[in-house]
Amino acid sequence: MSEVIDSSINNLRSKIKAIRFAMLTTLNDDQTLSSRPMTQQQLDDNGTLWFFISDESHLARDITSHPKINVTFAEPADSIYVSISGNAEVLKHLEKAKELWSPAVAAWFPEGVDDPHLSLIKFTIHSAEYWDSHSNKMLQLFAIAKAAISGHPPTDIGEHEKLQFN
Amino acid sequence: MSEVIDSSINNLRSKIKAIRFAMLTTLNDDQTLSSRPMTQQQLDDNGTLWFFISDESHLARDITSHPKINVTFAEPADSIYVSISGNAEVLKHLEKAKELWSPAVAAWFPEGVDDPHLSLIKFTIHSAEYWDSHSNKMLQLFAIAKAAISGHPPTDIGEHEKLQFN
Prior knowledge:
Helix content of chain A is 28%, strand content 39%. Chain A is built from five helices and eight strands, in the order αββββαββααβαβ. In chain A, strands 1, 2, 3, 4, 5, 6, 7 and 8 form an eight-stranded antiparallel β-sheet that branches. In chain A, strand 5 (68-75) and strand 6 form a beta hairpin.
């Protein structure tokens, strides 16, 4: 990874690190979109975001059928709004599962990392956008409002950055 | 509208009323998904959610090509996570624009409701789901964690309700 990419990943990590739940949006077979909260586990140095999942879940099937998903992080108190587009894959990866393991995960997979349904979502980030007003709340809220109302990203004031990972 | 539907709309309204920005997720022509924050203007009594938009925006074109979109509301401080699926339409509706008009909107459409590009997103809700821990934070956070980690919606504890509007 280049220093530019490293910097982009660190920047994205700083935005989302305090936001426990992401909303994962997937495409269904009938071309509708649905979302659900998921606990983020790790944004690694390769620009991959990890989640735990059961391979029996409806979401696992949706991802396998339609791997191009979107992940958002929202924290109104800090006016942080992040959109990440990329490719998701449901896989078994014992070494990674052990690395990410915590008591919170154990509550849902009582057999531990050897639970036969325990799987991971490996979400490879293609692009990430954020609307962040932390540095200058008034200006930034205004910038967000422009994006929010007109559908145009705020280009004149405030911090709006699109990170391209590939 | 039946009393059941009225009650569902009021319930949904109570969840999202304090959350100014929704994340709108759309499908692009290349089958990728993208999201952006948008200011909610009103959830009306018919189960329609309204936003302002410029008809020149990329988002307006995306919605016209792929009207089945998803809207999420997230408020970590109250552990509110809402997912709404439905059909969006970009339209001109002078009467509705006047009803929703505010100084915040005027900043982006300086010609007022007569701005030639001022349009509305009419988002007709088909289903709404929420994960709400306000009534019992500990239990509900646990319920969210189950949904979040396993991809299963929490059915045993906490409040998880799916509203069907049609």
